Amino acid sequence: SYQQPNKARISYIQASFGAAVALVWYALRTRQQWYLALVFLGSSKWAYIILGNALIAFFIWVFRFLTRRLLGGLRLVESEGLADFFRWNITDTCLALTMFRSELDVQCGVVFLMLILGKCLHWVVEARESHVRMTQDAILPRQNEPFRGWPMLQSSHLGLLVMLQVLVFLDILAVVYCVQDIVNNGMSVQLLFGFEAAILLVTAM
User: So where does this one cross the membrane (predicted)?
Assistant: First the structure.
């Protein structure tokens, strides 16, 4: 029997990036100058929505790229657990942000998305570490000559180790940035972000 070929589907990430590129092209085409185009992008509500959506899509792409390259993708259990983690923990962070609602701006939104990305990556690493610890040996002896019997670190463990070190490094940068901002500008929403980053750093160490 004849089967119709599968039609190529545009993913959410591709559609979001395409909409952002189309918006920038429209701004440049209609305003004719870079400055006027930037004014339009900075004042239009639709521009905020489209570019903000593209930023969310970018962070989703970063998450998928890191988990695919370093962890070999997510297991089904990890995907389901991540959905539950996202539902409850991100809601708590959003509620905490309401205490600083007078300080919410674009920069705060970007930092908030980075915090969400960091939380999701930390949770995935913790779940994968628990799975690997229970199901695999960290070090195996080599079977090929001339290094037969020498200890060998598995590739899955190596990717997990690299991911963990990257997260620790980013957590340290986040804590330092928040502390410097608080010292220079006083108490602000950075206190919340710094506290969250410090918690992630402790859990990753």
Answer: 12-28, 48-66, 106-125, 158-179
pLDDT in tens, 153-199: 555 677 788 888 888 898 899 889 888 888 888 878 888 888 888 88
End-to-end CA gap in the chain: 58
> Where does residue 188 fall: left (phi above 0), alpha (psi -120 to 50 degrees), or beta otherwise?
beta
Which candidate, 93, 49, 101, 81, places its Cα nearest to that of 193?
93
Q: How many CB atoms lie within 10 A of CB 130?
A: 10
Percent of the chain predicted with pLDDT > 90 = 8
Q: What is the pLDDT of residue 58?
A: 93
Q: Rounded to whole angstroms, how far apart are CA atoms 180 and 172?
A: 12
For the chain, what are the domain ranges? 9-73, 74-138+152-204
Q: Could you tell me the two tokens for 163?
A: 């991911």
Nearest to 189 by CA among 118, 122, 120, 106: 106
Beta-bridged to residue 17, according to DSSP, are none
Q: How far apart are CA 101 and CA 115, in angstroms?
A: 17
> Distance (Å, rounded) from C-alpha 160 to C-alpha 31?
48
| 111 and 193 Cβ atoms separated by less than 8 Å | yes
pTM of the model: 0.77
- Closest by CA to 161, choosing from 73, 74, 70, is 70
CB 13, CB 60: distance < 8 Å:
yes
